[in-house]
């Protein structure tokens, strides 16, 4: 995924499915300078946040 799409997803009111290595995640925020996004797992592990490279995110 590219940073422009991440920005669109974060600002969208729609529920857009995003996967990180096959796991469904929510994008909480992004760091354009570093090319990363902070995500948490959709499966209820809301406390488990990770900073991941944007290019490893995939829109479902």
Automatic annotation (TrEMBL):
Family assignment from sequence similarity: Belongs to the SspH family.
One Pfam family in the UniProt entry: SspH
Keyword set includes Isomerase: no
Main location as per UniProt: other
Name of the protein described by the UniProt record: Small acid-soluble spore protein H (Minor)
GO cellular component, as recorded: endospore-forming forespore
Keywords: Sporulation
HAMAP family xref list: SspH
